Amino acid sequence: MTQEAAREPETLTPGARKILDTAAGLFYERGITAVGVDLIAREAGVTKKTLYDRFGSKDALVAAYLRERDERWRDWLTGQVGLRGDADPGERVLATFDALAAWVRRENPRGCGFVNAAAELPDPGHPGRQVIMGQKRWLRGYLRELAAAAGAREPGRLADELVLLHEGATVLNGLGIVDDAVARARDLAAAALDRGTG
Amino acid sequence: MTQEAAREPETLTPGARKILDTAAGLFYERGITAVGVDLIAREAGVTKKTLYDRFGSKDALVAAYLRERDERWRDWLTGQVGLRGDADPGERVLATFDALAAWVRRENPRGCGFVNAAAELPDPGHPGRQVIMGQKRWLRGYLRELAAAAGAREPGRLADELVLLHEGATVLNGLGIVDDAVARARDLAAAALDRGTG
DNA sequence: TCGTGAGTAGACAGATCGGTTTACTCGGCC
DNA sequence: GGCCGAGTAAACCGATCTGTCTACTCACGA
């Protein structure tokens, strides 16, 4: 019986857990297309049969990788901003950049995993593509909320600017051509905030 | 006799020209790893022998693709800015965003070709990787010159901010999640310019 | 006790990967 | 006439690609 593929249960079997962790590392560090299922299975200490039994296809595994990364990032961002629930709304907007700074230090030496994945998944029908778009849309929506709470005259416009700064900082950080890219983005965000909430 | 690879003459043979044009389109639209040399040769109406006689290896062809893209972008940017040689220096900084806006409309529907390529070329020794780093360094240096001419107190810092805005706008434009991303970047750049040249 | 879900081990399929090779044609140039 | 650069045509190499398959083990739960 072929399984639904692209929908994995909230609790993974031990084998599936190892596969997903291994795939996540390899996909991010070497690229999605460049990493084959044979390599993933071998590195995870698992057979290809297990991989296909659990995930159904490579595309579905890619989507699962992106979904989990998305979830971790959202939890991290909202958690960090939540720690400053008592701060003034403008501070909370800027806190997203502090959260980003810590995140890229820990998890993003090679740039945004979603932007990188998007470069390799041009097909709009690819299951991973929808995860990517969802991630970006969510971020914009979240920043828009924070912007509105901070009294932005045009929350949508400010959110656009903040997303732009987030993405630019992440990408630049990955290329290593500008240091403290996230700090620069935070500075620009503070200025945009001033302008946008006058 | 193995040829030097990665150094092609300034004038290409007709076959090499077709190969490079075809490869450029395929690499950008489908990704580098996903496009094989067989496909490139077939689409270019050329045999694989010709491809290897002219370019030596796929890696060298990738580097040639990136070099030519780099050259086109530099020519476009400096050309557009040059058209406003009589404008005030601050206007010239902002003109780089107008040049970028026209560029992404014409050539960048899928985001920055260099950022996308960097996602697929993690190996620092890859010949294409050096082209990418050179491109970003050049852009930062060019913006730094313009920033200095505009009277920036810290031209290096302002250049970092401008590069960040350029990259963020390009990436966001490619993802299609924010419209007028380049216009937003231009607004932010104008504000940064005000702040940085007080 | 019996069935089931999760797993190993490993062969197999057909296609494609980057890259090499041999044999040949054609046009220009000295 | 003779050489050479540029090209075609097509076979070939070993490796790897995604995906399927059979056969078997093991632990657990009804």
Automatic annotation (TrEMBL), chains A, B:
InterPro entries: Homeodomain-like_sf (IPR009057), HTH-type_TetR-like_transc_reg (IPR050109), HTH_TetR (IPR001647), Tet_transcr_reg_TetR-rel_C_sf (IPR036271), TetR_C (IPR011075). Keywords: DNA-binding, Transcription, Transcription regulation. The keyword Transcription applies. One of its GO terms (molecular function) is DNA-binding transcription factor activity. PROSITE patterns: HTH_TETR_2. Residues 36-55 bind DNA. It holds the Pfam family TetR_C_13. The keyword ATP-binding does not apply. Residues 13-73 form the HTH tetR-type domain. This is TetR/AcrR family transcriptional regulator. It comes from Streptomyces boncukensis. The lineage of its organism: Bacteria, Bacillati, Actinomycetota, Actinomycetes, Kitasatosporales.
